[in-house]
Amino acid sequence: MRRRLSFFLVVAGLVALVVGIASGCGTLFSFNGRHPLLVVPLVPGVPLRKAFAAKAGKRYTLAVHVVFEREGLEEVNGQLAVEAKLPLVASIEDSSGVAIAKAVGFLDPNEPPTVLYGHASDAHQRRPNGVGPAELVAERLLGPVTPAFDRDVTYAVDLGTDRIGKNALKEVRIVIYDDTLPRSITVSFVAAGAGAVALVAGSILLFFGLFRSRRGGKRRGQVV
């Protein structure tokens, strides 16, 4: 019975260890350090000022997403051509109301630091964390900021209407990210840790079982 238990612990522990490490590392390497915390709708031409509860030591990033309609867009060299120019003034403030991160300029999908996702003609393309591959979205980041203590972090975003007006907008939103590891990564490494414990325990039980059986065989040989 002990030997069966030992073999089971070794096999189960080894499987959990390998699967947990492979799954955890795969997800960890693809994690860009930004975990979606909340999504706030934004209307171009209507300034928005809000706050969210932040924890000390956490890293927070604000993203402005402008989602475009894909239908009717021209395709150039295998990519969808998007033309837009939205004036943007955005800031994240400290506890005294002073801007500690600020962006002033235009949200232009063809000009850095704005990044356009989903413009490739195929479905396999990079995209912001938490955004589906079918979306054609321009992203402008602000931050990161790391509060020294727990507090409400205030942010203000004033995104103007599109100066070009050639492409239809599907959705405009603000996404607040933190640096919390995805639950799947935590679960995978916990499973790997449990597998390692089971593997070690099974190996110890198996070793002592074999050692006892050998000692028992020697004693029986001496008695005979």
State the main characteristics.
four-stranded antiparallel β-sheet, Jelly Rolls, disordered C terminus, elongated
List the helices and strands and how they pair.
Blueprint: H1 2-30, E1 35-41, E2 48-54, E3 60-68, E4 75-76, E5 79-80, E6 86-93, E7 99-107, E8 115-117, E9 136-145, E10 151-159, E11 169-178, H2 183-223
Antiparallel strand pairs: 1-11, 2-10, 3-9, 3-11, 4-5, 6-7, 6-10, 8-9
Helix pairs in contact: 1-2
Could you walk me through the main structural features you see in this protein, from its secondary elements to its overall organization?
- By secondary structure, the protein is an alpha+beta fold.
- The chain has 2 domains: 2-22 and 185-223; 33-180, Jelly Rolls (Sandwich).
- Helices cover 31% and strands 34% of the residues.
- The chain contains 2 helices and 11 strands; from the N terminus they run H-E-E-E-E-E-E-E-E-E-E-E-H.
- The strands form 3 sheets. It has a 5-stranded antiparallel β-sheet with strand order 1-11-3-9-8, with no helix packed on it. Strands 2-10-6-7 form a 4-stranded antiparallel β-sheet, with no helix packed on it.
- It starts with a helix and ends with a helix.
